[in-house]
Amino acid sequence: MEPDYNNNYHNSYQSEFKPNGFDDLHLDDEVYEIKSDRINPEDFYQHSQKKRYSEVSLRNMPVVLIIILANLLAGIMCIIAGSDHFETGGLNYQYIHNNKEYIRLLTYMFLHANLPHFINNMVALYLFGSRLEPRVGSLRTAIIYFGSGLASGLVSVYVSHLINPDVIRFAAGASGAIFGVMCATLFTNFSSKTDSNKTTVIVSIALIVVYALISNGANVDILGHLGGGIAGGILVFILYHDSLDGAFSGTVSTLLAVILTLIICFIGVTRAGIGTKASAMQDSRIDTVKEQQIFQDESITFGQCLDNKCTDPEWTIFSSADNKKVVEFNGKVVYNNMNSSLKIQFTYDEAISYWTINYMGLNGTAMDSNGAALLLNYLCRDYLN
């Protein structure tokens, strides 16, 4: 009779190599067999990822949640305090380009015209942001949102001015940034292994079209929307790669995104001029004129000369009949042994990016260029070399 090798091995295993806690384990117990020939790894990956992305949770979208809360806070502040927030924090070519108020490229994203405008934007941000952030990560989402908002603002300001240079307009709202999030989400729907099905893509496109129709109106910034959407598509195309997952995933990346978003939102809300009347604001264009040099080879400025050599100096700014901003100075001066009223008006020359004297007069009488030069030399005599 030949030895039973299988039985000996079985007994040896049970006596010598049986792990603790496996006393009831018998090697001859029934084995569960896989019914299919093999498991498709791609099917398993798609199933797990679909389950993951289908679970919308606030903890998976901290950046989107912070942005929504910041916009809500800004809206409540506008209602309570009341303000000319479109003028104090909205997009405007004259303020941004001429006045160098670049902070408006951020503050405008937190201001809305009315309650429907706010609700439409925040609902759209939630619908698309809740899909985008769990997929690409919080840091990518923050870059896409604020990058799209910045691009939207630049397009709105400069392209609109090129088309209608004589129109003074203000714009505000998060629509441009949200269009960037929408286009980024649509891009990931096409490229993701989990959402490349026709249904998801069609639904995404339909929601974008509906949002565009709802927000369509006479005051809608179409150019800004296009700029934000294109920027969002470009940014997600650059950032959404497997090779970058290490830099944009994990706790550290999420924490960095949350901190940066909180800082940006704090600056955007607090610098928007909420609760401030536009008429009460010190227009920094006046400061720009004051800081300009009077003579090319001398350091003396208009502010230094006029404020020190004239009595009762007063600076104001207003819009002319042709919608140009005018900075005006009024003061008293002793000239040719006479007490006279001096008026100087400055207008911005875009060709040279400089505020130039458009009018200068004494006691209501305009002076020619030679007379104006003589008076300025007289006022600046103590500062000239």
TrEMBL record:
TM regions (residue ranges): 61-82, 102-129, 141-161, 167-187, 199-216, 222-240, 252-274
GO cellular component, one term: membrane
PANTHER family: PEPTIDASE S54 RHOMBOID DOMAIN-CONTAINING PROTEIN (PTHR43066:SF11), RHOMBOID-RELATED PROTEIN (PTHR43066)
InterPro entries reported in the protein's UniProt record: Peptidase_S54_rhomboid_dom (IPR022764), Rhomboid-like_sf (IPR035952)
Domain spans labelled Peptidase S54 rhomboid: 100-240
This protein's name: Rhomboid family intramembrane serine protease
GO molecular function, one term: serine-type endopeptidase activity
Membrane topology, from the record: Multi-pass membrane protein
Keyword flag Flavoprotein: no
Organism lineage: Bacteria, Bacillati, Bacillota, Clostridia, Lachnospirales
Compartment list: Membrane
Originating organism: Lachnospira eligens
Protein keywords: Hydrolase, Membrane, Protease, Transmembrane, Transmembrane helix
One GO term (biological process): proteolysis
Pfam assignment, any one: Rhomboid
